Amino acid sequence: MVLALEPSAAVVNYLELPDSPANPTVPEPATPGGRRLVTRGTPDREFDELDEQATVLRRKEQAYLRKYILPGNSGTCALCERVLPIEFLVAAHLKRRSECSDGEKQDFENIAMPN
């Protein structure tokens, strides 16, 4: 979620974060020999179509689980124990969902926590 300047400043202040800009550096992609793989602005392929249809699995319980874990306008983060607006929290699985049985996926009391 991207916030406007004023709400961002309020979050930084609330979380007592340092007031310094982030300046991430992203290395250029390179081959093992150190040569660049892609020249910026020059595509390495041409496509006849840019979109394609795909079939995906959807987690039917996802919306219910979020409402179950975060029923109000705020919640307590299970990691830092701060009370935060629900916009800053997610319903995080305690165990990888891909490793859960169907029964575990439906155990809403014990499978997820607010983070």
Question: Portion of residues in helices?
Answer: 10-25%
Distance between the termini: 15 Å
Spell the H/E element sequence. Answer: HHEEEHHE
Described by the principal axes of the CA atoms, the overall outline is extended
What's the number of extended β-strand segments? 4
Would you identify the regions where 5 or more consecutive residues have pLDDT less than 50? none
Strand content: 5-15%
Q: Structural class given helices, strands, pairing?
A: alpha+beta
Tally the helices: what do you get? 4
Note the main sheet. 2 strands, antiparallel
Describe this structure in words.
With 115 residues, the protein is of the alpha+beta class. It has a domain at 59-115. The protein has helices at residues 5-14, 62-69, 102-105, 108-111; strands at 74-76, 83-85, 91-93, 112-114. Strand 1 and strand 2 form a beta hairpin. It is extended. 6% of the residues are buried.
SSE diagram, text form:
Blueprint: H1 5-14, H2 62-69, E1 74-76, E2 83-85, E3 91-93, H3 102-105, H4 108-111, E4 112-114
Antiparallel strand pairs: 1-2, 3-4
Would you kindly provide a brief summary of this structure?
The protein is of the alpha+beta class.
